[in-house]
């Protein structure tokens, strides 16, 4: 399996992701530049977090028009794997590879802290091996992370097992008190119907190195690696 990590102007988690995949998970990684549409034969594309183009329009909106994104869309439409984290998740909604939108946090403030995630989907490779009775501590760092989708869209996500994670507390309680940004239904990540495109606001790559004191992110990546086809 060959991973590709794209760098956009303003990306600040691209090297974190490269380090996680190469040094922590022993994977082959190709560094991709947003102006070059060549995906260089990668199997799994990752859109990392950051502030692409300074988030001067909507977060991820300008990046969605970068030359490489048409190749990413074609890769996804052919069944190739794509994962967007934080700013990358915003790009996936801007390109309509995933439904919904990421709006300003209901507090109107940037939030940077650890949160707990409760896995929901039983069919997506990123959650397939996770225990739905447990929670996983993963950092968030965003100002526009409030997931929104209309009622019909939410029902579709539920019916098709497309909700990856919900914000919860350590004990697994999911309610307004455990929702850091006002996301509808406490949604922290979603996938598409065919389960090859994944988006999430929290940063699992920041919870893989033992030096950071948290290894819960490693469990998400292990589930991906163990279930790739």
From TrEMBL:
KW ATP-binding (keyword) present: yes
Record keyword RNA-binding present: no
An annotated GO cellular component: cytoplasm
Active site residues per record: 86 (nucleophile), 203, 205
Major location category of this protein: cytoplasm
Gene3D superfamilies: 3.40.50.880
CDD domains: GATase1_FGAR_AT (cd01740)
Pfam families noted in UniProt: GATase_5
Subcellular location: Cytoplasm
Catalytic activity entry: L-glutamine + H2O = L-glutamate + NH4(+); N(2)-formyl-N(1)-(5-phospho-beta-D-ribosyl)glycinamide + L-glutamine + ATP + H2O = 2-formamido-N(1)-(5-O-phospho-beta-D-ribosyl)acetamidine + L-glutamate + ADP + phosphate + H(+)
InterPro entries in the cross-refs: Class_I_gatase-like, PRibForGlyAmidine_synth_PurQ
Xref: PROSITE patterns: GATASE_TYPE_1
Protein's pathway: Purine metabolism; IMP biosynthesis via de novo pathway; 5-amino-1-(5-phospho-D-ribosyl)imidazole from N(2)-formyl-N(1)-(5-phospho-D-ribosyl)glycinamide: step 1/2
GO molecular function: ATP binding; glutaminase activity; phosphoribosylformylglycinamidine synthase activity
Key words of the record: ATP-binding, Cytoplasm, Glutamine amidotransferase, Hydrolase, Ligase, Nucleotide-binding, Purine biosynthesis
EC number: 6.3.5.3, 3.5.1.2
GO biological process: 'de novo' IMP biosynthetic process
Function: Part of the phosphoribosylformylglycinamidine synthase complex involved in the purines biosynthetic pathway. Catalyzes the ATP-dependent conversion of formylglycinamide ribonucleotide (FGAR) and glutamine to yield formylglycinamidine ribonucleotide (FGAM) and glutamate. The FGAM synthase complex is composed of three subunits. PurQ produces an ammonia molecule by converting glutamine to glutamate. PurL transfers the ammonia molecule to FGAR to form FGAM in an ATP-dependent manner.
Oligomer status and interactors: Part of the FGAM synthase complex composed of 1 PurL, 1 PurQ and 2 PurS subunits.
Name of the protein: Phosphoribosylformylglycinamidine synthase subunit PurQ
Species of the source: Putridiphycobacter roseus
Gene: purQ
């Amino acid at each position: 399996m060959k991973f590709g990590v794209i760098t956009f102007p303003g990306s600040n988690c691209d090297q974190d992701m490269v380090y996680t995949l190469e040094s922590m998970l022993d994977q082959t990684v190709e560094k991709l530049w947003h102006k070059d549409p060549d995906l260089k034969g990668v199997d799994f594309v990752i859109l990392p977090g950051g502030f692409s183009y300074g988030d001067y329009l909507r977060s991820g909106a300008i990046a969605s028009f970068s030359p490489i994104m048409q190749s990413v869309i074609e890769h996804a439409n052919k069944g190739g794997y794509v994962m967007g984290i934080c700013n990358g998740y915003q790009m996936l909604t801007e390109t309509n590879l995933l439904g919904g939108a990421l709006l300003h946090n209901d507090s109107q403030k940037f939030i940077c802290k650890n949160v707990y995630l409760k896995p929901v989907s039983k069919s997506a490779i990123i959650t397939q091996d996770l225990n739905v009775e447990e929670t996983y501590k993963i950092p968030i760092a965003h100002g526009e992370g409030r997931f929104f989708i209309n009622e019909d869209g939410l029902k579709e996500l539920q019916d098709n097992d497309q909700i990856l994670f919900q914000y919860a507390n350590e004990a697994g309680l999911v309610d307004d008190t455990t929702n850091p940004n006002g996301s509808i239904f406490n949604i922290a990540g979603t996938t598409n119907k065919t389960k090859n495109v994944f988006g999430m606001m929290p940063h699992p790559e920041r919870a893989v190195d033992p030096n950071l004191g948290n290894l819960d992110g490693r469990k998400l990546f292990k589930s991906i690696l163990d279930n790739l086809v």
